[in-house]
Amino acid sequence: MKISYYPGCTLKNNAKNFEDSTICSLNKLGIQVEELQRWNCCGTVFSLATDDLIHHVAPIRNLIRTKESDSDKVMTLCAMCFNTLKRANERVKSDAESLDKINNFMYKEKIKYEGDVKVLHLLELLRDEIKFEAIAQQVAKPLKGLKVANYYGCLLVRPKEIGIDDVENPTILETLTTVLGADPIDFPYKTECCAAYQTVDKPEIVAERTYHILTSAQSQGADVVTVSCPLCAFNLDHRQEKTIKQYPEFKNIPILYFTQLLAIALGCPEDTLRFDLHYVDPKPILKEKGLT
Amino acid sequence: MRINISKKNIKNPFIAKVEELSGQNLLACYQCGKCSAGCPAVSQMDILPNQIIRYAQLGFKDELLKSKSIWICASCFTCNARCPKGINIAEVIEVLRQILLRKREDHVKVEKLTDSEKGDVPPIAIVSNLRKFTS
């Protein structure tokens, strides 16, 4: 099976660990990943003002690129890209006038967009098309004894019209973690915002969120916390440096993309995990559990 | 604090604009407070999310536009998910930001960001921050 893939900006630098571990894992599962040609930034946030059509042009242009690659569906990894692409798609599907205006604006495009591309998150591909049972059969190195707190953040599950799982209590990552042989632990902060882009001009707010989210996971015995968004990853991992300054009693905990756990379990080589991009090194705990 | 409530402020042109640009019916709110109860950012806010809606119902334009809260909300959509009346509070807050940004009243001044503020964060952080906080 082939799947069209939209990476987005951060997957090509800070989140290369997310991309490399995903591509290796999908190859192990028999999926060929085809990156879209000439993709552009999705805008990162979906415009909420009713008249702000211009900011839907960028996501819709990527859906045209998907059609140009003879595909009717596109997979994303980043939760922000997923949310922006899918919401823009839903907006134009339910509003013919907006779609018409956006198409007219992009008059130089050879293909007219008709709302006919499906936006998928990798987790949906794993659950609905590859199936978790098939993944279970491919697990080469079960993640025995690793206690994993799965952090969903906001944009995979909200708003509920586009979310990939239950809006208040998603469990898709816990199911996947179990399939990989690890022990998922529940914690009450799994869908609480990390303060997102406030990290640029108000990092102290992010440090406060990071402190509460991570200490909650630690109080339930988590060894690692998984994420599915490069901005959550930055805030929960790299902002631990600031968190310790604000809360001296805070103890570091490694943050991993769920795809890095998938890659370890499926037997991908260590260079696809790119631990050099992490602030808190996940290797000591993985070594302790016999996983490196 | 003394507050003057007057009939002429309710449904004033500013509030009509907020309703139009957000696509929300503000008078549907009956002040249950679930939005504020679930908001992870209230500790940083001067006016709580349910108060933002109340102020909007009463036409308090100046209080809304000078509030710190509209720049604290990170559009996590927890309030929207929990509102029993189906009001999208995050959209209302976005529109309050937009009304200022469309007058070029940027919240983040790009030229004032330090090299470390710009350089240490991933591109996704910079793009989303500038999309939300600049015109």
Notes on the protein architecture:
The complex is a heterodimer of chains A (about 290) and B (about 140). Chain A is of the alpha/beta class and about 290 residues long. Chain A folds into two domains: about 120 residues, Glutathione S-transferase Yfyf (Class Pi), Chain A, domain 2, CATH 1.20.1050; about 150 residues, Rossmann fold. Chain A contains 13 helices and eight strands. Chain A has a four-stranded parallel β-sheet with strand order 2-1-3-4, sandwiched between helices. In chain A, strands 6-5-7-8 form a four-stranded parallel β-sheet. In chain A, α7 links the parallel β5 and β6. In chain A, α1 runs parallel beside α12 and α2 packs across α3. Chain A is globular and about 55 Å long. The two termini of chain A are about 30 Å apart. Chain B is mostly helical and about 140 residues long. Chain B has two domains: about 90 residues, Fumarate Reductase Iron-sulfur Protein, Chain B, domain 2; about 30 residues, no CATH class. Chain B is built from nine helices and no strands. In chain B, α1 crosses α7. The interface between A and B is large, with 41 and 39 residues.
Number of strands of chain B: 0
CATH architecture of the largest domain in chain A: 3-Layer(aba) Sandwich
**Poorly predicted runs of 5 or more residues of chain A:** none
Largest interface: chains, residues each:
A-B, 41 and 39 residues
| Highest-level CATH class of the largest domain in chain A | Alpha Beta
